[in-house]
């Protein structure tokens, strides 16, 4: 029988059994027992489990203690980690607290703000439209969003005077997907706190971005750009004829059984959301204000970073990526579009937040493994988030890893010790 490592959360009918052994995703169930090889987590499920022959259980068991050490050192309040492959999950651990003040333990079904881990999902929605012939990655953005017509470029800024000119070419969908459009990453005065207030609709926010001059010629540089990813979400919204968040729920989350992934979590899910912490003077404190504001009353889904999700839901998505764009009978993207998303599309441009990276369509891609990526294969792809979350897929090894934490103030979340240790233990646990 194949088995999945559940850590100690399963013992005694604790949070794991209370929260996750309920109704399962489409077509999946635990069968006759928790060790069933065709099992699935309840509302946050995954398909299958991984045979012990593929991972060394003893080595994987070190992951829990390593994450607990970060909690004991007060670097984290708590963490959820997931390790798996195309067949399912090998390790699913929850340590520490989801909310210190409430003394609420971290659980496998805890919801996290995954922030920029949203970006590859937005890119996935675009590539679904490419598969259907409704969008071309090489088309000018103004083909789908006319407000971008005639956009200008900053030629110079001297003594407070800005001179504009026309760019050599208009920005394309490809430019947005690869962060090479030249769009300013932030927002102008008056709407600078757009993500905090969330008072504008996606259409209104993208209209504002379309009227800003470009910072550089399209395709000439890489510059991380939230506004560009939001524009991709608006393209999907415009072409599909429905709100962006409705499209991704209907076309991605529902088919994959990702029943705990939302731009606007419903009221009954909010008690499961983990609190965010910063570290000060050796203690964990809750920040007075977050980059991304509350979802209640929000009008902007934030395609660049607005999702909440769980370890189980993200595991389903990453299984589908390893399986060529499908999970069971659910197909979300063609193998050809998936290959285009996950290969380097930025040439030799300097990219990313750690050395040796390139960018595909929505995904960061490891070109030359080194430092925090040293244990990963070339071609590994993934993304991090502003609250320290990380998710990476190594196709050569058939491996995915997920780190879910809620921590601001890290020097560089993409280079965190938590990410490094998760990847190290996961890779070392793969049997030859």
Could you walk me through the main structural features you see in this protein, from its secondary elements to its overall organization?
With about 425 residues, the chain is α+β, with helices and mostly antiparallel strands. The protein has two domains: about 280 residues, DD-peptidase/beta-lactamase superfamily (Beta-lactamase), CATH 3.40.710; about 110 residues, Beta-lactamase, CATH 3.40.710. Helices cover about 25% and strands about 15% of the residues. It contains twelve helices and 16 strands. The strands form five sheets. It has an eight-stranded antiparallel sheet with strand order 3-2-1-16-15-14-13-12, with helices on both faces. It is globular and about 60 Å long. The two termini are about 20 Å apart. The relative contact order is 0.17.
């Amino acid at each position: 029988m194949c088995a999945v490592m559940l850590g100690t959360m399963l013992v005694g009918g604790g949070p794991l059994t209370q929260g996750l052994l309920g109704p399962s995703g489409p077509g999946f169930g635990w069968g006759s027992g928790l060790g069933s090889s065709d099992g699935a987590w309840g509302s946050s499920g995954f398909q299958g489990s991984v045979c012990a022959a593929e991972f060394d259980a003893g080595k994987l068991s070190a992951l829990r203690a390593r994450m607990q050490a970060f909690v004991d050192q007060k670097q984290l309040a708590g963490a959820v980690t997931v390790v798996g492959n195309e067949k399912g999950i090998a390790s699913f651990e929850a340590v520490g607290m989801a909310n210190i003040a409430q003394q609420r333990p971290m659980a496998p079904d805890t919801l996290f703000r995954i922030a920029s881990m949203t970006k590859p999902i937005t890119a996935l929605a675009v590539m679904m439209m490419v598969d259907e012939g409704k969008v071309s990655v090489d088309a000018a953005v103004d083909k789908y969003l006319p407000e971008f017509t005639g956009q200008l470029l900053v030629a110079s800024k001297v003594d407070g005077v800005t001179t504009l000119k026309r760019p050599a070419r208009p920005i394309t969908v490809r430019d947005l997907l690869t962060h090479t459009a030249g769009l300013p990453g932030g927002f102008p005065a008056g709407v600078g706190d757009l993500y905090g207030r969330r008072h504008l609709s996606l259409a209104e926010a993208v209209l504002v971005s379309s009227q800003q001059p470009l910072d550089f010629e399209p395709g000439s540089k890489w510059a991380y750009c939230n506004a560009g990813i939001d524009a991709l979400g608006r393209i999907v919204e415009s072409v599909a004829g429905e709100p962006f968040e409705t499209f991704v729920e209907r076309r991605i989350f529902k088919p994959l059984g990702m029943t705990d992934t939302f731009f606007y979590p419903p009221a009954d899910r909010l008690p499961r959301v983990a609190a965010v912490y910063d570290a000060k003077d050796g203690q964990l404190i809750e920040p007075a204000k977050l980059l991304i504001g509350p979802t209640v009353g929000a009008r902007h889904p934030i395609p660049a970073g607005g999702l909440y999700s769980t370890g189980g839901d993200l595991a389903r998505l990453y299984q589908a990526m390893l399986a060529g764009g499908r999970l069971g009978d659910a197909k979300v993207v063609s193998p050809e579009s998936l290959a285009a998303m996950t290969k380097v599309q930025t040439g030799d441009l300097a990219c990313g937040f750690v050395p040796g990276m390139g960018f595909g369509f929505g995904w960061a891609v490891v070109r030359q493994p080194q430092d925090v990526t040293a244990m990963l294969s070339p071609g590994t792809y993934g993304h991090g988030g502003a609250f320290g979350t990380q998710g990476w897929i190594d196709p050569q090894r058939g491996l995915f890893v997920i780190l879910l934490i809620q921590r601001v103030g890290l020097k560089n979340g993409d280079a965190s010790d938590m990410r490094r240790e998760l990847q190290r233990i996961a890779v070392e646990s793969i049997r030859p």
